[in-house]
Amino acid sequence: MELLKFAVWLLVLINCSVVVADGVGVHSLVLCADTPKRRIGVAIGDQILDLSVILSLFQGPVMAKHQDVFQQPTLNAFMGLGYEAWKETRSTLQFLLSANESTLRDDWTLRRRAFVPQSAAIMHLPADIGDYTDFYSSRDHATNVGTMFRGKENALMPNWLRLPVGYHGRASSVVVSGTPIRRPLGQMRPDQTKPPVFGPSKQLDIELEMAFFVGRGNLLGELIPIEKAHEHIFGMVLMNDWSARDIQAWEYVPLGPFLGKNFGTTISPWVVSMEALLPFAEPNPIQDPQPLPYLQHEDAYTFNINLFVSLKGHLMKKSSNICTSNFKYMYWTMKQQLAHHTVNGCNIRPGDLLASGTISGPNPESFGSMLELSWRGSKSIDLGGGETRTFLRDGDEVTITGHCERDGYRVGFGSCTGVILPALQH
């Protein structure tokens, strides 16, 4: 099987209770019909390796005692085992899937049970997300938004260059790619000379983001030092943190985002491990002024991840790319975000989700929100074929994709997609 030669780098939660199969995929149809429960898998080319089938093959010093984590419906238990368990698991999988290893290669019965076509799988949230924090860590994005609302001279607030600014989001409305998003209702004040009005948001927006899942956590009252932060960062997903800009603009003073954000956040189902991303690490951005000691680290923890956003209206025959950006544009690193999050003794737990905030680059085509792309609605975004947007319309489908590529080696993140449904009647 050629698929055994592919590198292993993704973990996903799968459910095969509903499948489509033809040709050789019929064996997966039988497998999934008999085992309709959610389980953990690894993407190998266009296949998924069901880890619950091969759990007995994890015989390393750590995982031999914890094989049962691969029988769980989410990744929480596995993530909670910690850094050494993740590395050992990755090493075992790379060995099992190498071209010269016969355990899977020569056992047709085992392969028939263990491999499922990606096209025959239903993806779910990879973890039970207890808490969700959204940061605001792109200098270009913060500068753009600050310029729009406060002017160029006061674009960045005094604390922005001193600490990773963030807020606590709503974990209950984090959904997996493919879940529709309903246009939210709320209060807005489009005319500053008149009282606020209530109704559907008219400035519904995207936010191109990435997020990381926390692995092993910390106890309440303890902190995670930046030197150890990487041991608590399990892996990354794509994210679209949908935003109702008109609701947000009216409500955010003085306590920040609320109803303008918490109606829906979409993530990709694939979790790319940090070990897989290390070959794509780049030097961290120069930070001036220098952060306080608890936020300082010299090891490279900025990653060259190419990111793309496309939009397809319900009358459009094909999607149009509206943004090409890169994760390397972030000012604050994930290690700094995690160290700051816990420096006051806040406890985090396996499966907690920490997001980057909107990722924007220095050029207009790299702006990660329609707020920036349309410059607060002052200009149209050209989608081709006569279609334009300033903000999202009902029926619009937004897809975020991302990948790393170097020396012919490519790591993909899958896709993060959502369609806008009309607001409820009010």
Folded structure, characterized:
Helix content is 18%, strand content 28%. With 426 residues, the protein is of the alpha+beta class. Strands 1, 2, 3, 4, 5, 6, 7, 8, 13, 14, 16, 17 and 22 form a 13-stranded mixed beta sheet that branches. The protein has a five-stranded mixed beta sheet with strand order 9-26-25-20-21, with no helix packed on it. It has a two-stranded antiparallel sheet with strand order 10-11. Strand 25 (397-406) and strand 26 form a beta hairpin. The radius of gyration is 22 Å and the shape is globular. The N and C termini lie far apart (56 Å).
- Uncertain runs are 1-34
Number of strands: 26
**CA distance, first residue to last residue:** 56 Å
Q: Determine the mean pLDDT.
A: 91
Secondary-structure class: alpha+beta
Radius of gyration: 22 Å
Features:
426 residues, alpha+beta
What's the structural blueprint in terms of helices and strands?
Blueprint: E1 10-15, H1 26-34, E2 38-44, E3 47-50, H2 76-81, H3 83-96, H4 102-105, H5 108-114, E4 115-117, E5 122-123, E6 132-135, H6 139-150, E7 166-168, E8 174-176, E9 181-182, E10 185-188, E11 197-200, E12 204-205, E13 208-214, E14 233-240, E15 243-244, H7 245-251, E16 265-267, E17 271-273, H8 274-277, E18 281-282, E19 302-303, E20 306-312, E21 320-326, H9 334-342, E22 353-355, H10 370-373, E23 381-384, E24 387-389, E25 397-406, E26 409-421
Parallel strand pairs: 6-22, 8-16, 9-26
Antiparallel strand pairs: 1-2, 1-5, 1-17, 2-3, 3-4, 6-7, 10-11, 12-15, 13-14, 13-22, 14-16, 14-17, 18-19, 20-21, 20-25, 23-24, 25-26
